[in-house]
Design a protein that fits this description.
7% strand, 57% helix, Ribonucleotide Reductase Protein R1, domain 1, two-stranded antiparallel sheet, two-stranded antiparallel ribbon, Fumarase C, Chain A, domain 2, 10 strands, 19 helices, mainly alpha, 3 domains
Length: 506
């Protein structure tokens, strides 16, 4: 006979729902009865005793305790992380079957259940808060229990976290949270980088390269210290952004390579006790087959389990991407400022009204959103670095936070880069006449004759231009006694954007 909210005795620990908390009868049983009716519950057991969980849940007692113990943030691990866990448990079961350590009946059921986890069919069962035990044991056991219960359901029709398939003895065979959790971080990160981030960055690179070519002949004023400087082309500026993104891609590819060396097989402390000597190799081979990535055993599991160094390195590559994006969007906001009181050198696509009080105002909302993303990624990188320093001796205690922030950074960088490329860069239009007007008015153009007349004489010309609000060409004609045609030749703006000494003939 199934238990319900009404049949539980005084003080029994009960579940208030899949994403709920486990509380005492005095607090919640009446509320549970009125809000959910007689929802069936079942008993699950662990080494500390009994817990009641909803009968339709796949998780068991250890997950229930974790939900009870960590009602912290409401944050859950992302889909890619759960996918990675499912793939790892599938690969582990397959390896153990091949090694003769797990019978095919149980192994096949575990593999089927694990693949359902990887495919997202059981996502609502992963209910443990991100802020939990530092090793991530609660989440590993959440995965183990869900896979065990689903495997038992496949084999016997009974949904129970313990039965013919046991979460520790069979699903977790040859493993420890201490090597599985960091492996899951690296597998999830590698997959997210390969499938999401790198394609988005390459899309952004293509748009920037296209704009660099389109704006090749658009001359504008350069600026240093936010003051007028020598002319550049808008194409050169966009070319520099493309170069930044290209460098970022190279950095991310190096970070991805670091993630491919997995700590799986280290078990509890890195020594590999209680797993077959060939287990890790077979798991890496299977993960490679499933993902198309070339995973391999780490040469030193102690390093990756204790220091999380591969993830720290990969997170640093994400910081490089954030740096590039922040540089690009800050420049775009300045060049697009206006329309009448700013630079107004480019027009950024208008994608939504910009003000709730000023009619007709349009803001650079896409660059601003990407700026927020960049700041968050930089902060996440600091978080990853500090959490990685929580590891003493053979185990890192910052892994759940590392997992969440690292994967969050990949996700928002991928989405932000794609949005920036498609909703902003692709539609930018150059205000050609405005660019040339500002370039021609820059007193820094006098630099062209400084090698001939000297720095001090050139400075006099620049000062007169500013004080008298006159054209630099007019002042140069007067000060240097040159024909207007010669001054026009010297101040050919396009030539000034290239290397060389244009005033050589003066």
């Amino acid at each position: 006979m199934p238990f319900t909210a009404e049949t539980l005795g005084h003080g029994t620990r009960v579940a208030t729902g899949i994403d709920g908390r486990f509380k005492s009868r005095e607090d919640d049983v009446k509320a549970m009865s009125s809000s959910q009716g007689s929802r069936p519950l079942r008993i699950e057991r662990d080494t500390l005793g009994e817990m009641y969980v909803p009968a339709d849940a796949y998780y068991g007692a250890q997950t229930a305790r974790a939900v009870d113990n960590f009602p912290i943030s409401g944050l859950r691990f992302p889909r890619q992380f759960i996918r990675a866990f499912g793939l790892i448990k599938y690969a582990a079961a397959r390896a153990n079957v091949r090694l003769g350590l797990l019978d095919e009946r149980r192994g096949n059921a575990i593999m089927q259940a694990a693949m359902e986890v990887a495919e997202g069919k059981l996502d609502d069962q992963f209910v443990v808060d991100v802020y939990q035990t530092g090793s991530g044991t609660s989440t590993n056991m959440n995965v183990n229990e869900v896979i065990a219960a689903r495997a038992n359901e496949i084999l016997t029709g009974v949904r129970s976290a313990k039965g013919e398939v046991h979460p520790n003895d069979h699903v977790n065979m040859g493993q420890s949270t201490n090597d599985v959790f960091p492996t899951a971080i690296q597998v999830a990160g590698a997959l997210s980088i390969k499938e999401e981030l790198l394609p988005s960055l390459r899309t952004l690179l293509e748009e920037l390269e296209r704009k660099a070519s389109e704006f090749e002949d658009v001359v504008k004023s350069g600026r240093t210290h936010l003051q007028d400087a020598l002319p550049v082309t808008l194409g050169q500026e966009f070319g520099s952004y493309a170069s930044l993104v290209r460098r970022s891609i190279a950095s991310v590819e190096v970070g991805l390579k670091a993630l491919l060396e997995l700590p799986i097989g280290g078990t509890a402390v890195g020594t590999g006790l209680n797993r077959h000597p060939d287990f890790a190799r077979l798991v890496c081979e299977e993960l490679s087959r499933l993902t198309g990535l070339e995973f391999r055993e780490a040469p030193d599991r102690f390093e990756l389990m204790g220091a999380m160094s591969a993830v720290v390195q990969a997170s640093g590559s994400l910081r490089m991407v954030a740096h590039a994006l922040l540089k690009i969007v800050k420049d775009l906001r300045l060049m697009g400022s206006g329309p009448n009181t700013g630079f107004a050198e480019i027009e950024i696509p208008a994608v939504q009204p910009g003000s709730s009080i000023m009619p007709g105002k349009v803001n650079p909302v896409i660059p601003e959103a990407v700026g927020l993303i960049a700041v968050k990624v930089i902060a996440n990188d600091v978080s990853v670095l500090l959490a990685a320093q929580l590891g003493e001796l053979e185990l890192n205690m910052g892994m759940p936070l590392i997992a969440y922030d690292f994967l969050h950074s990949i996700q928002i960088l991928a989405s932000g880069s794609r949005v920036l490329a498609k909703k902003c860069i692709a539609g930018i239009v150059a205000n050609v006449e405005r660019c040339r007007e500002l370039a021609e008015s820059s007193p820094a153009l006098v630099t062209v004759v400084a090698p001939i007349v000297g720095y001090d004489k050139a400075a006099v010309i620049a000062k007169r231009v500013l004080e008298q609000r006159r054209s630099i060409k007019e002042v140069m004609v007067e000060e240097l006694g040159l024909p207007r045609e010669e001054v026009d030749r010297l101040l050919d703006l396009k030539k000034l954007t290239r290397p060389g000494i244009p005033a050589k003939a003066v």
